[in-house]
């Protein structure tokens, strides 16, 4: 896996340090509130797992999975729900936990949907904020890092479902995705590199 990474953007230590800071801010801001951390599957799983443990408040965890159609590195803007929340949110302060905001399309769809369920409040915390012209402008209340407009993987972020288990965030070599990949093709090329 590591040989497909052009540059390590954020090390494990940098990620953990920032998550500890975000945890402290969120602990201060939500003291006394009924907080629900809403994680977006699958990319936000490592982030929400570490962030939840950095927040010193009673809180609930729930997850939504949404899929956006597109090719492997570009979203198309058509989003649909694959897995919904387990219960209502009208008595809760909801904090959406995202791994990355890129075009803004996924979050725009989620915010629109969740607002209609009347949460007590709705805010967004994203580990990464990609520096690019958004297709949809979205509010970000907390974020860890602004990153350049490059395709990144690791710490939950994938390319063709791979690389999510890298402990750092790195820029993927463009040669890996220069031809349209399938998980099978990528597995094959990784096996050939061993
Ligand atoms: O701002 P956008 O351009 O919409 O991109 C951001 C979204 O894309 C990724 O999810 P993806 O749909 O790839 O699903 P995954 O989390 O399962 O990888 C990521 O986890 C964000 O949810
Ligand atoms: O840069 C990215 N990497 C992985 N998944 C993503 N989804 C949107 N942008 C990205």
TrEMBL record:
Molecular function via GO: guanine phosphoribosyltransferase activity; hypoxanthine phosphoribosyltransferase activity; magnesium ion binding; nucleotide binding
Domain Phosphoribosyltransferase: 13-159
GO biological process: GMP salvage; guanine salvage; hypoxanthine metabolic process; IMP salvage; purine ribonucleoside salvage
Catalytic activity as recorded in UniProt: IMP + diphosphate = hypoxanthine + 5-phospho-alpha-D-ribose 1-diphosphate; GMP + diphosphate = guanine + 5-phospho-alpha-D-ribose 1-diphosphate
Localization in the cell: Cytoplasm
Cellular component annotations (GO), alphabetically ordered: cytosol
Keyword Cytoplasm: yes
Enzyme Commission identifier(s): 2.4.2.8
Pathway in which this enzyme or protein is active: Purine metabolism; GMP biosynthesis via salvage pathway; GMP from guanine: step 1/1; Purine metabolism; IMP biosynthesis via salvage pathway; IMP from hypoxanthine: step 1/1
Record's keyword annotation contains Metal-binding: yes
Major subcellular location class: cytoplasm
Cofactor: Mg(2+)
Record keywords: Cytoplasm, Glycosyltransferase, Magnesium, Metal-binding, Nucleotide-binding, Purine salvage, Transferase
Enzyme's top EC category: transferase
Assigned protein family: Belongs to the purine/pyrimidine phosphoribosyltransferase family.
Name assigned to this protein: Hypoxanthine phosphoribosyltransferase
């Amino acid at each position: 896996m590591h040989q497909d990474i052009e540059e390590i953007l954020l090390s494990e230590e940098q990620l953990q340090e920032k998550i500890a800071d975000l945890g402290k801010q969120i602990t201060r801001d939500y003291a006394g509130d009924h907080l629900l951390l809403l994680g977006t599957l699958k990319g936000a799983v490592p982030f929400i797992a570490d962030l939840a443990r950095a927040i010193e408040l009673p809180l609930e965890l729930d997850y939504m999975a949404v899929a956006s159609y597109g090719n492997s590195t570009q979203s198309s803007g058509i989003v649909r729900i694959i897995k919904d929340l387990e219960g209502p949110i009208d008595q809760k302060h909801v904090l959406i936990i995202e791994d990355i905001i890129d075009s803004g399309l996924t979050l725009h769809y989620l915010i629109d949907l969740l607002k209609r369920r009347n949460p007590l409040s709705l805010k967004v915390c994203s580990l990464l904020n990609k520096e690019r012209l958004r297709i949809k402008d979205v509010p970000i209340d907390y974020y860890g890092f602004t990153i350049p407009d490059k395709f990144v993987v690791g710490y939950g972020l994938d390319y063709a479902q791979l690389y999510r288990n890298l402990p750092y965030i790195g820029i993927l070599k463009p040669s890996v995705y220069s031809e349209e990949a399938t998980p099978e093709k990528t597995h094959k090329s990784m096996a050939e590199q061993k």
